[in-house]
Design goal:
- This protein is an alpha+beta fold and 234 residues long.
- The protein contains 9 helices and 4 strands.
- α2 packs parallel to α4 and α5 packs antiparallel against α6.
- The longest helix is centred in the middle third of the chain and has 29 residues.
- Belongs to the GST superfamily.
- Keywords: Transferase.
């Protein structure tokens, strides 16, 4: 049995199955990237809820795993060389899990890097911009008298959606007919933008054709359906 006792995070979230990958997360657009990935690849894992309402992400135990205090994070008891590997940042975790299992990241070097470029596109553009739309449209920012920040982030989100719309023309997935971590990285964010954030009309989502069809295909996948609800919210 793997010994994870050297990692302080296991004091607050004890591992019932220390031989399995440990996931510390919340079902946010970033969090579900990893739960969807784990469901897709079928790698055994144990999930731990990081409750933001209790400021779990600010505790010394969680910060010992991710000093940035964000979810998701993992602790893999069977990392490189058979040694435990702690890892944070959703994009890095997706790439690590793809490399570990040989799944959902093309083996061909050129296509591999093309997939990774779209992963970075999500992390650098879609995530931050859609998140700002959520803040200024649904949360505290909606009460700001100055609407220029909202207008700026809506315009940029629409531009990013147009980029994906153009790219998906004639394609089923971001990488043609191959479903990859690039798709997984974006599905939760697009779903959140038009659903939880309530910005469907704001970004003129229904004027698009390719992105809604891609989203529907992605959300129909059983592993995606399961991953979107892991871990269960309190």
């Amino acid at each position: 049995m793997s010994d994870l006792s050297a990692f302080p995070i296991t004091k607050r979230w004890p591992a019932k199955h220390p031989d399995r990958l440990q996931l510390y997360s919340l079902p946010t657009p970033n969090g579900v990237k990893v739960s969807i990935m784990l469901e897709e690849i079928g790698l055994p894992y144990e999930v731990h809820l990081v409750d933001f309402n209790k400021d779990d992400q600010k505790t010394p135990e969680f910060l010992s795993l991710n000093p940035n205090g964000k979810i998701p994070a993992i602790l893999d008891p069977d990392g490189p060389g058979g040694k435990p590997l702690p890892l944070f940042e959703s994009g890095a975790i997706l790439q690590y899990l793809a490399d570990k299992t040989g799944k959902l990241l093309p083996a061909d070097p050129a296509r591999r890097y093309q997939t990774i470029q779209w992963l970075h596109f999500q992390k650098g553009g879609i995530g931050p911009m859609f998140g700002q739309v959520g803040f200024f449209h649904k949360f505290a920012g909606k009460d700001f008298a100055d609407k220029r920040p909202l207008e700026r982030y809506v315009a940029e989100s629409k531009r990013l959606l147009d980029v994906v719309e153009a790219h998906l023309a004639g394609r089923q997935w971001i990488m043609d007919d191959e479903y990859t971590i690039a798709d997984i990285s974006m599905l939760g964010w697009v779903r959140n933008l038009i659903g939880f954030y309530g910005a469907r009309d704001l970004v003129a989502f229904d004027t698009l054709k390719q992105v809604p069809a891609w989203l529907q295909r992605g959300l129909a996948r059983p592993a995606v359906q399961r991953g979107l609800d892991i871990p269960k919210r309190p």
